[in-house]
């Protein structure tokens, strides 16, 4: 059995309102179950106002199954009123995520108030 080429480091701020998932290594098919569990755990608190930040700066590659999980995380955040952001995408990872719109123009961001329409937008 070969050693996994991927790792997720999870950090949480003092209040527990922001969860950072740092994806390190190659996130291909083998990593999808680990990423699924990491995303599930990140959203486990389930309280409104939670913010999940997925940092892909140290991600070497990302496969279609993991891209799908990142998209599911975005949809889940929107439905539940959570903040969600994918940050620091570079090179091939940025190109792969950009094809799905996950990092365009800079990052795909579900603000905490995603379900509300601001007054500026209604004018």
TrEMBL record:
Residues 21-102 form the MlaB-like STAS domain. CDD domains: STAS_anti-anti-sigma_factors. InterPro entries: MlaB-like_STAS, STAS_dom_sf. It holds the Pfam family STAS_2. This is Anti-anti-sigma factor. It comes from Actinoplanes derwentensis.
């Amino acid at each position: 059995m070969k050693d996994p080429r991927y790792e997720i480091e999870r950090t949480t701020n003092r209040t527990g309102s922001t969860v950072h998932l740092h994806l390190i290594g190659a996130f291909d098919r083998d990593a999808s179950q680990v990423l699924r569990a990491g995303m599930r755990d990140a959203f486990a608190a389930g309280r409104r106002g939670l913010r999940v930040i997925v940092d892909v700066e140290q991600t070497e590659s990302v496969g279609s199954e993991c891209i799908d999980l990142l998209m599911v995380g975005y949809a889940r955040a929107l439905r539940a009123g959570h903040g969600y952001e994918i940050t620091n995408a570079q090179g091939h990872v940025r190109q792969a995520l950009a094809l799905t719109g996950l990092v365009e123009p800079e990052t795909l961001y579900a603000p905490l108030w995603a379900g509300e329409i601001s007054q500026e937008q209604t004018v």
